Amino acid sequence: MISTGAILGIALVALTMVATPGPNMFYLVSRTLTQGRTAGLTSLLGTTAGFGVYLLATAAGLGAVFTAVPVLYTVLKVVGAAYLLYLAYQALRGRKSSPFESQKLPKDPTWRLFAMGFVTNLLNPKIAMIYVALLPQFIEPARGHVALQAIILGLTQITIAIIGNGLIVIAAGRIAKFLAARPTWMRIQRYLMASVLSVLAVRMLTDRARPGPA
Questions:
Q1: 133 and 36 in contact (C-beta within 8 Å)?
Q2: Alpha-carbon distance 122 to 50, whole Å?
Q3: CB count in 10 Å sphere of residue 209
Q4: Contact 44/166 with Cβ under 8 angstroms?
Q5: How far apart are the first and last CA of the chain?
Q6: How many CA atoms lie within 13 A of 13 on its CB side?
Q7: What is the pLDDT of residues 79-88, one digit of tens each?
Q8: d(CA 55, CA 59)
Q9: How far apart are CA 21 and CA 36, in angstroms?
Q10: How far, CA to CA in Å, does 49 sit from each of 29, 52, 102, 150, 175?
Q11: How far is it, in rounded angstroms, from Cα 103 to Cα 27?
């Protein structure tokens, strides 16, 4: 039903997103460095719940949208590729601050850590674009069961995000010391991420596949 290439494609996108600094990484690392690993992991559970909301909304709507407006598939392809190129540009441009710089945050109770992680993810434009514009690129309507394909791909992304961000939370202190001693590594990481995102964007634009009957 769903191709291995589609799963590997969304997995590569998810891995690249995890490795690219963004609101989620800044929040999770800040919480970990300020309040400890337990706080960081609790916040991660909140962001995971945010992923679930996006996944359910996407799975519920994609099948109907592709059936009613087939041209939207092409529109989403262009928007998704453009967004990947934008992320590549942002990666090259870089940020003045590192997500692994210690920032002072107030110590919050468990429920608040979860809620803030949840809201941070829901309001993260990068995550919204993954589900609105990028995930549909790996769905092949001709294979049928569009909603099920969306769920499988979404769960692939969520699994990688949990593992990747979980490792970052657990190793936040060591990573901070590593990057402080090796500032050149951040530049290498930015160029690597930009290259991967650009290749994905070109692949997306040159793919001649068209949605077929669900």
A1: no
A2: 5
A3: 11
A4: yes
A5: 12
A6: 32
A7: 767 766 776 7
A8: 6
A9: 20
A10: 18, 5, 26, 17, 26
A11: 10
